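Hi! If you just cloned this repository, the fastest way to understand the data is to look at a raw example. We've pasted two of them here, unedited. The first protein comes first, obviously.
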Amino acid sequence: MKFKFTFSLVCFFLQFAAFAQVPDLERIEPSFWWVGMNNPKLQLVVHGKGIASREVKLNHTGVTLSQVHKVESPNYLFLDLLVAADAKPGKFNIEFQGKNQKKLSYTYELKERDKSSNRILGVTNKDFIYLIMPDRFANGDKRNDVIKGMQETTLNRDSMYYRHGGDIQGIINNLDYLEDLGVTALWLNPVLENDQPKTSYHGYANTENYKIDPRFGDNALYKKLVDESHARGMKVIKDLVHNHFGSQHWILKDMPSKDWVHNWPEFTKSSFKDQVLFDPYASEADRKIMTDGWFDGHMPDLNQNNELVKNYLTQSHIWWIEYAGLDGFRLDTYAYNDPEFMAEWAKLIKAEYPRFTFFAETWVHGIPNQTFFTQGNTINRGFDTELPGVTDFQTLWGINETLNGKFGWNEGVNKLYTTIASDFMYQDATRNVVFLDNHDLSRFYSVVGEDFDDFKSGIAWLLTTRGIPQLYYGTEILMKNFSNPDGLVREDFKGGWAGDKENKFTAQGRTQKENEAFGFVRTLANYRKNNEVLQTGKLMQYVPENGIYVYFRYNADKTVMIIMNTNDTASDLSLKRFYERLDGFTQAVNIISSQKINSLQTINVPAKTTWVLELQK
């Protein structure tokens, strides 16, 4: 995640939100929980004017109030509850009593867990992820375009900085389109409330942890999206930000204690230099700036050494998994978090949900830099990060060089080959997410100079290489632009708004080339969806020669051969050197064109073309 806009720190020091309920009890978070959780511990955040002066009592079979924490602010209590394994679902009162004060009572509920078999499945290399920026995808409910009382109320589709009105209902309305494309998992940029004064559309400066932004919908609608996706065999990934809150987050406007965020004598931004985390010669000062510096002026850096901060974050994440039935998390700005906390967090998530998966953004340059953050790499750390996979920026740089560079010893497609040859550094590279672009990067079609052949080669690689493929919304219809600024790669998906002159969700609304691009993605994505060989099959790659890169995906049932010709001219390719994988096969079928190849001796591969061939005996 990358933003260039910086707010004044003045907004961070605003104090005391108006109380929504009774004057002495504004909120309790989480507002409800479940019985039968693996971890019996539950910590409630109680916020209300002067609430710390009161004593707390509750009475529910199987629930024990084990400790009450008071902090610097008199407006908070943190309640440690133990929920026994045999506790029954139901409601009970939590009472707050004070001398000469009116008794306050909050009705808390422990719910029954939903044990449906199609929930919380995890996202794996069997999936194909589609990344959506909700504000820019489709507007399904115009009534929530502007919400009175929120700080940003400007709606302007002609501006890249203001909100455009896309929402969760718009995504639900277009699930048919996504299912037809071959998508099996949705990753939405953050949808929690982001009540910041400006550029709130992107969602990466949340101001609530338990509430969907009302301009996207509400919690129930978000759960409906998950349920309807699951009914189609599609999963949902939630985008999380551990590193920071938005400056207008309710808990930062009346902080429990000064050490909820990292405070500096003057505003200090992170250096974003990941090297200091593993550099054996790095100074502690540089490491501190990297992890404790703020991401931006309106994004205070959370102190993840504070136990209450850690609990607040972790419980909110578990709450969303249980409430909505999520399948995975994408972890934003991972490298800037406290590494010990993130390892601890990962263990807690895995213990509660063994099938649940997550992957992290590690926007770094260098294979060792990237593998440093992943599970199983303990060099220079002394602990395991417990992080299964990352967004694989290194293969992104590799495919970009493949399609834009000239073939050489380390250049062109050799860079991609070398990158994948370095997979021995990972515990399991198939858990990495491979991609061509995202909401922070230039659109892939523009990166390859709007060369349609290179575009198709990139898509073919994405859907046949190892790992979990991810497509950014609109890539399949050749959306283009460079991320200068970021808003240029976050344009609306045409047809998502009533009155749009073009509707790219339909074949009739797309140009001939857009339909060809869509069809190319759909054909290969659905082949991958229906053939495990491109999901979990083994990979064998061959050293590129003369600008041609060949690799195979294979299992006991099928073998698929991928031939990538990066040259500007057609090439005759002798298949003799690939005998290990061709043994017993005599012909092949082109997955895209259905054309049959009757001989596997020598074949002519057109210029700048990638063939995906299913081998036959």
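Ok, and the second one:
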Amino acid sequence: MTSPLPPVHRERSTSIPAVLVRIIVLGAVLAVTAFTVPLMIQQQQWMWLAVMVLAAIAIFVIYSTKRFIPGKYLFPGTFFLAVFLITPIILTVGYSFTNYGDGTRGTKEQAVNSIIANSVVQTDDSTWYNMSVATQGDPVEGPFTLFLVDPATGTVYSGDEETELAPVPSADVTVENNYVTEASGYTILEAREVNDAYNALQEVAVPVDENSAVRVQGANQAYVGTTLLTYDEAADTITDTQTGAVYTVGTVGDSEYFVNENGERAFSQSWLQNVGWSNYQRLFTDSNIAGQFLAAFAWTLVFALGSVALTFVVGFALALILNDERLKGRRLYRSILLMPYAVPGFIALLVWSNFYNQDFGLINTTLGINVNWLGDPTMAKIAVLLTNLWMGFPYMFIVSTGALQAIPGDVMEAARIDGASRFQTTVKVVTPLLLVAVAPLLVASFAFNFNNFNAIELLTEGGPFLPGEYTRGGTDILISMIYRIAFGGSGADFGFASAVSVALFALTGVLAAIQFRFTSVLEDVN
């Protein structure tokens, strides 16, 4: 009799792939960290640097050992929750207490450099150079370094906003056709990239001496111009060398600017500053802005409630009709009704925007009418609701169909035995039971439409607008109004837009609490 074979231990063989995967993942994390940390330090992205370092340390601590088993499963979700939800909320709240916007995005030093750069003028004896733009950071935002070649002598110079123009050793650069094509430690921008960064390059002035600086001209040329303004760091003043005027720092509105002797703003540039509660005070005390905010909030409620109500009523009615077993071809009808849901939303909105054209639109042409759908505020609101009805009723139809099929037939049969008509059975039995099932989805649909930016922006672009009005259009809901404040035609005002976003966040929380209270009431339906 042979003895039984000893059990085969596969622990080592199965653990080898796991160890390899762990080594590869941790190595990738280390490589990404080593690559991004110097860039973040150079760009002074201290918050994201802290997030990157802490995340890398946490990954190594949690996944390099067999301990912290729960943490291995909790960390990914917690990390992405913190990065993509909590951090943006913190940043939004932080920006709401600042003047962040057009002309106030950078530091005071950057604002001064921009003012000085804009004062450089070309003279008859200006020296011209062949220019190559280089960077060690972002190819659009910079910071940028200019590599200049003197066509007459072939001498190469380099400099940036903080470093004066100086010769460059020939060993550090590669020159072809009197242009620098490679530079040690830098990335030379291509012509297309220079064009993309041209607005930022217009703010660059490389100092040559106290009275002159290099300015960019075109995609590959630069000249030495005369600086009309000089900055005295000790006195914190800017002096006009032509007129002798001295500009000091003063407060205009909520922000500091360089002002003239009358206290008036001398230059458009300012710098990022903490303005306290000024943005919130402006939102709630400025009658014009407060009125627009309340009007947008009222229309947002109407739009969200109207969209949910209309789509649910139509979807529920169609589901009831097609739930009748006596109707033939129900599958075909259901497939046809789902077609609007199959079309991508942004395509449908763009198509419908053409349908509403007053002169050539399908609706006016087919019906023989001349309605200014998108030019009249009331008709534009109706157009938005009709379009959202077309796009949303298939979802409610699917939801209602599933809920109806989940209701036991015995319940409806019992109601009919008790003498209830078909209509009474639908209203007093089927509808309450269906609402219990779909109420959370109605709440979710309301929350979605409350911030349904695409439906407004792609269909009406928030319009129509009153003459001279750029902050809010006739169909702007709160989220599209915030977008217009942040990026609209009247200039970017991220600080104020952040304050409005915080107010919207608070309103959404209150409405969500009310809605959940409503759904808890429906749960009492037996």
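That's it. A detail worth noticing about the second one: Residues 287-322 form the longest helix (36 residues).
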